[in-house]
Amino acid sequence: MSLAFRDVACMRGGRLLFSGVSFDLGPGDAAIVTGPNGVGKSSLIRIAAGLLAPFEGAVTCDADKALLTEASALDSDRTLIDALRFWAALDTAPAPDTRIAHALSALDLDALAGIPVRLLSTGQRRRAAIARVAASGAPVWLLDEPANGLDTVSIARLETLIAEHRATGGIALVATHLPLAIPHAQEIAW
Amino acid sequence: MVIALIRRDLRRSVSSGGATLVVAFFLLVATLFPFAIGPDAALLARIGGGVIWTAALLAALLPVERLVGPDLEAGVFDQFVVRGMSIALVALAKTIAHWLSFGPPLMLAAVIAAALLNLSADTLLRVEIGLLIGTPGLAALAVATSALVAGVRGGGAVTGLVMLPLAVPLLIFGAGSLDPAGGAGAVKLLAAVSLVLVAGAPFLAAAAIRAGMD
Question: Which residues form the signal peptide (chain A) (predicted)?
């Protein structure tokens, strides 16, 4: 199981955002993509997710992926638990209900499970989206600005969640402009 | 998986007013014609089938914008792609859900419209058969159009311009099937057009959605 970039370049709107990005992540590894706004962090995550084709180079990944972007992809008119269930049912990992229960408690969302998604605050919605990733059971996590809108307690929960994921052999690729404590993570910057 | 997608879309359609708006608009358009043409029962009976088809086409435009655009914006399609799901299959599921939410209600409303327009039972039967065959094609076209205009600013105005010309074959053969003498051929052509749309439009929609992600 691995996620690898080989000399990947990204062109957006006729502008070369980055080129020659290479890294190799195996079980338990993490990489953190840093840099100022507009440098192409989100594009790198989208390339890793297969949503964008690399302009040059190749991306290989032989495991299921879970993606966190700015859009939560949770139906706003449904309750949080139902919105999470929809995605968990589409994921390939077994026992969706257990995975959701674990993700909800890991992000302190138990009390909000029955609340419609549209009533959640920005930070709660972000945590809900992280719960969707955590409940997916996918070995590769691709997180675009996961700490946006989170308070310090929630950031600590996020860091714990990523550490647990890596401890069970998961891979995490995290793009962030906020400092996140991810021990022994490769730094990717250009 | 397809069942889950259909259920999600049906639920969203119901929570946003569902078929009520489409049916109300359909009946309103069908009522405009007697007002505009006058209470000539014989004339209304002659043009009534065509009126129903025109009204159905216009009513089918209403929900088009919210079929794909909101999901694209909310990152739902990103999540489908990351899971390796076929976007064409997703578009087909959307087509089925969309048809379920407007096809059968429209066929029920056509009975009321037929009474308003003084249609004979025989013509009504032909209209219903035509709608049953034609509305799946219309649903497929609606999903493809929705995908095409999803990223466009002011997509609402463009929607009609894109969809109505493409729906003209359905209108021609649908209205043509009402002719008691030569209707059978038109029914077959209507079925052919509808089948081509149902089979082809999901791929068109998928290509448009993928292009919109770039």
Answer: none
